[in-house]
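[SOLVED] Need 3D model of a four-part complex

Original post:
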Amino acid sequence: MTKAARLRESLKSENIIRVTGAHNGMSAKLVEEAEFEAIWASGLEISAAYGLPDTSIVTMTEFLEAAAQMEFVTSIPIIADCDTGYGDECNVMHLVKHYERRHIAAICIEDKVFPKINSFMRGSQTLEPIGRFTSKIRAAKSAQQSPDFVVIARTEAFIAGLGLDVALMRAYAYAEAGADIILVHSKAKTATEIAQFMKRWTYPVPIAVVPTTYASTTTQELQELGVNVVIYANQGMRATVKAMRTLFSDIARCGHAGGREDLMVSVQEIFSLQGMD
Amino acid sequence: MTKAARLRESLKSENIIRVTGAHNGMSAKLVEEAEFEAIWASGLEISAAYGLPDTSIVTMTEFLEAAAQMEFVTSIPIIADCDTGYGDECNVMHLVKHYERRHIAAICIEDKVFPKINSFMRGSQTLEPIGRFTSKIRAAKSAQQSPDFVVIARTEAFIAGLGLDVALMRAYAYAEAGADIILVHSKAKTATEIAQFMKRWTYPVPIAVVPTTYASTTTQELQELGVNVVIYANQGMRATVKAMRTLFSDIARCGHAGGREDLMVSVQEIFSLQGMD
Amino acid sequence: MTKAARLRESLKSENIIRVTGAHNGMSAKLVEEAEFEAIWASGLEISAAYGLPDTSIVTMTEFLEAAAQMEFVTSIPIIADCDTGYGDECNVMHLVKHYERRHIAAICIEDKVFPKINSFMRGSQTLEPIGRFTSKIRAAKSAQQSPDFVVIARTEAFIAGLGLDVALMRAYAYAEAGADIILVHSKAKTATEIAQFMKRWTYPVPIAVVPTTYASTTTQELQELGVNVVIYANQGMRATVKAMRTLFSDIARCGHAGGREDLMVSVQEIFSLQGMD
Amino acid sequence: MTKAARLRESLKSENIIRVTGAHNGMSAKLVEEAEFEAIWASGLEISAAYGLPDTSIVTMTEFLEAAAQMEFVTSIPIIADCDTGYGDECNVMHLVKHYERRHIAAICIEDKVFPKINSFMRGSQTLEPIGRFTSKIRAAKSAQQSPDFVVIARTEAFIAGLGLDVALMRAYAYAEAGADIILVHSKAKTATEIAQFMKRWTYPVPIAVVPTTYASTTTQELQELGVNVVIYANQGMRATVKAMRTLFSDIARCGHAGGREDLMVSVQEIFSLQGMD
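Solution:
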């Protein structure tokens, strides 16, 4: 059973699927260890891991290698954040061929214009015309080889400030075009936009959300709203930065790394995660 | 002024050089932010980041890309941990050509046999005959283009349990062969092996150490022993694992990521580190 | 002296610079062996070598690796064909930083819209507004570290059927924006478009041309027109395809590869080119 | 049906399987176009394409990417030449996991010592002890996921001048250890070594040969000897070098590329091979 097939199986369950972001093999292994259902190969985390802006300058090749590296060392499905699809329909078909061949279970493309900028940046966002984006979704679906491969269409209607009606209209259009899951992104402080959306969403296509700004909304609450997939998209990277920053300033200040076992696992623990036992 | 030249400048200073391990662009940026003098492109951290064992299965290409990714986004020198040199003299010359061309300031090769296993693993280690290893050092020195490029020879004599005399003999031979710095590795619980070594080391070639097991020995103490370079080789990775493990289990348990700002930096902070301001 | 500096030196000479396309280390070595002045890391050749369309689906990472591979094994300057710059000004600045760091002497960007399609394809081409493209040129120039690095702006005005006046207007605008060389592309059967352009070009910025369709126009004739750089952009790849196709059908037909030494160099000759002597 | 399964199917046929070497996507496409049964991702061709020696300095990562690039654009099985396995049993298991995941149908490892040197080089070759090499074969077989994946063990006994008995003894040991095909390499001017071997080979494991030096021996003759797989391992690269060398010196001499259509396919032909129609 492929990982894509396993992802489809989970989608049939009554429980919400919990997906957590990662940026390399190790973080992916830790997502699996914590028993999440899938790994989000996060565009933000991967570009941040490179130390580069999340503005379409990291290439498909680099994102793909990061996702494949995660896949290589874990056994749960990988959902790859593929930004805008890196160009037009041809680029989307090409990426689907690559990601599916690398055993990625699902890809997610969003309706912003290439080159994009991260959704949580201040400033306005421009969306692609609906017709152009549905054409990308159709291209993605036509390029997959196995029926199990999952294509997620993400609408940034709320992010762009276009409101509920546009969000719904885009979501319906993307579902009609063949998207297997619709990701509705929101940067509201609470889950109100998501709640309003879910109240009016009647189409039998699962909905995914990313509670970054409305971080206190629980999995349980989202499930009660009817959400099918919840993605903790960037918390892992944010925790690694906090941890290294704290430890590095500590070492610099104290002149040694001793006595901070509370901040670190042991070297033996790293070996164990690397499979060196 | 190249980064290699800057590293040589620092070596002339009376102060010990503090070098901290990293495994990708972001961790390298945080090492620079904490004002260490150089970045250690750590073999253990990079293989762990891949989620793979530190046993010579990660290739030179993969280690090089990780080091170059660090170099691309930072302005302090990178010292690359190159394991055993990935083969014989030809492999060493090839790696020097690659690393120098990618603006890495220094490479470090160790006197274990390829394929190697991490020095902190239980079990015995086999060292290369001295003549074979000095031949690699000479190969490395002959391959560099700029006189500023730094070649570090690392002896695992203490790790292999061969004692002080062998450690000194190997260190002298490596210095004679042209090594610019000798890294004396030890997994003793205290810095005694290092202290004994330093007492007898009279050759005018700088010494580097890696206080992983003797973690409470301070920079100040090492400097008083005459050590020139201290490398905090793996603490960053160990902190990221601890941080993600704690946070992921928290999210899994609580059903949300809210209220754990103590464990994470903000998304805006990530943007700032990515240069997205 | 860097390769970029050497390329600038050649541009000062009275003789036209002859540049020949390559797609990997070996073809680059053969360009150098034939004593051309520089190597064109051709977008068409590299995408063809991948077996992929020349339509912006091969990524910057892949093109960069191919160019860097050429640079690694040769000693003459590499001029890298960078299509449209792979996005907007940010992408262009990012590519300049990458290519310059990889010791590429020059990059060339063209005024088509991303994702682009090869200039010799039937069908129409859309050009970027002049203001957007000059903004890319300025971004490229601002990103280079050494004053020697060369930025080539390529206008597809003739390819898009826009005529001499538009070609000149664009060329002037690009030169004013800081381009070090203007590449005037033409797919006319003879060099007439180029001749007309050169007659009216008075600006002190060198002109490069690509005689693919007007293949019989000689270096001498182009030099007399005032052209400074001639690029044989794709002939190498076209020769390799012809050669392999002929030989493979021969082997398939005859059931052996013997007696066709006229079509092949010896294995020893390959060794010699690989530096295995 | 996977490509590995298709390769196994072909092995059941009465006809010898003809495999031809390639070094990138385009050459692989031309092998398929000429209707060979499989593609040899040749170590010699790939290292030569990089412009680098065939002496274990090109890494597994680089060889794997080249093979995967071939696989991505063709539909016949890829057999990957994996030199000595790039290290010990761990390296072999790691490579099998990587190659199988990249849809390569078969890998081939040889019984020389790492780092190796090409078999056609003058000078002596050292073979691994039989026990060490059979241990690698067992490691390879234990690492594959699908029973269809094919592991080829190559003996260099003839190359090392060890004679028929050693060749047979090694071949039997490798077959007993689980190798799916035995490749018997020879650099004799005629197929006599192969003929002698085949006369005494009675084990039900297929035999592959590489007629580089005995190039005039036909497929038909090899089939009559009982050989199951014939590999034209390096002729494609040798033809590309001859073709580019001829054409480049022609362009340099004549000052133009016109009138040499006999040496090149058209640009349109390249487009067609790239799938740009």
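Edit: Chain B has a mean pLDDT of 97.
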